[in-house]
Amino acid sequence: MEVKSLKTVIKDKRRELTVVDGIDFAIRPQEVVALVGESGRGKSMTSLSIMQSLPRAAQIAGGQIRFGGRNLVGLNKRVMSRIRGRQIAMIFQEPMTSLNPVLTVGTQLTEAIARHLGIPKAEALGEAEWWLHRVGFPEPGRTRKEYPHRLSGGMRQRVMLAMAMACRPSLLIADEPTTALDVTIQAQVLDLIRELTRESDMSVLFITHDLGVVAEMATRVMVMYAGRIVETADVRTLFTEARHPYTVGPLQSTPRMRGEIRKLVPIPGSVPPPGSFAPGRRFADRCPMAREECRNSEPELREIDAGHQVRCILA
Questions:
Q1: CA–CA gap between residue 294 and residue 67 (Å, rounded)
Q2: Distance CA 157, CA 165 (A)
Q3: Bridge pairing between strands 220-225 and 32-36
Q4: Torsion angles phi and psi, residue 232, rounded to 5
Q5: Directed axis angle between helix 153-165 and helix 105-117, to 10°?
Q6: 138: which residues sit within 8 A by CB, 6+ positions away?
Q7: Quick check: 84 and 51 in contact, CB under 8 A?
Q8: Is the pLDDT assigned to residue 98 strictly greater than 90?
Q9: Rounded to the nearest 5 degrees, what angle is found at the Cα of 98, between the Cα atoms of 82 and 169?
């Protein structure tokens, strides 16, 4: 997948707010790319733009999303519905909002498989049970008869993972899939995603604000702030040679298990809401190293080393 100058806006009667502002990135085959940033600042809107599943008030105002040689922006809804779920699948932070509460797990999983793979329901039922077993349910025949509310959060997330993987997509978008889970179940779900990725040719766009998950899962990281990507690098480079002040901030404020005890350094202030950005760099008011030119004009995302791009004049 290649995303070029993607811009997504939310419109109401009074104004237009830009929530994703001209971002560019690519995801290579079998690559796990993490999109990192504070909550509510464009990560999920990026994923919904890719899936063409934006809320009614939002729309893509510019750019391209190229997948398999085809631009998904403006694509016919019927064609997009065949891509969504079959070639690009997505799992969300809270699976209870994605599963139908009045249908059994098996009914929902079988329907998705039969629709996208074009196989009879009896065969789809067998596939559904196989995938439920594959994601860790010891009695899939029993699990498929359960309703979502009778399963724990970790179990529901495994059902969503089975539903996403059953059609063998080329790209899986995981939007904070472990945030609502306790750390033990979180580790199990991450292990499962990693194992399924290794077994297939699938790529993953992993959206999170948890740097521990990033270190565990990703091969490459994109850091997002106020709708724009401010730094991108391979995961080792980002953790050892981060250059943008916004990337350095969370790394300095992360407790360490070993080594000398040190004072955590938080980032002052908060992310400005969409539509209230200063004329210059969006991070300038929170940056301890900001200069006058930072407030007057926003720098471009430039490459400072092979594969390492930063949006900062001091990088």
A1: 35
A2: 12
A3: parallel
A4: -145, 140
A5: 10
A6: none
A7: yes
A8: no
A9: 35
**What is the amino acid identity at position 305?**
D
Q: Are 249 and 269 in contact (CB under 8 A)?
A: no
Length of the chain: 315
Q: State yes or no: pLDDT of 280 exceeds 70.
A: no
DSSP 18-77: EEEEEEEEE--TT-EEEEE--TTSSHHHHHHHHHT---TTEEEEEEEEEETTEE-TT--H
Nearest to 161 by CA among 115, 123, 200: 200
| DSSP annotation of 258 | S
The Cα–Cα gap between 73 and 70 comes to 9
CA–CA distance, 263 with 272 (Å, rounded to integer) = 26
Q: Supply the DSSP string of 243-269, one letter for each residue.
A: -SHHHHHHHHTS--SSS------PPPS
pTM of the model: 0.89
Q: Residue for token digits 């301890």?
A: 288
Alpha-carbon dihedral 235, 240, 242, 247, rounded to 10 degrees: 70
Residue 88 and residue 173 in contact, taking contact as beta carbons nearer than 8 Å: yes
**Which 8-state DSSP code applies to residue 184?**
H
Q: What is the pLDDT of residues 27-55, one digit of tens each?
A: 998 899 999 988 777 899 999 999 999 99
Neighbours of 50 (CB within 10 A): 23
Calpha distance 97→308 (Å, rounded):
37
| For the chain, counts of helices (H) and of strands (E) | 11, 12
Question: Which residues lie closer than 8 Å to 279 by C-beta, 6 or more apart?
Answer: 295, 296, 297
| Residue linked to tokens 């040689």 | 69
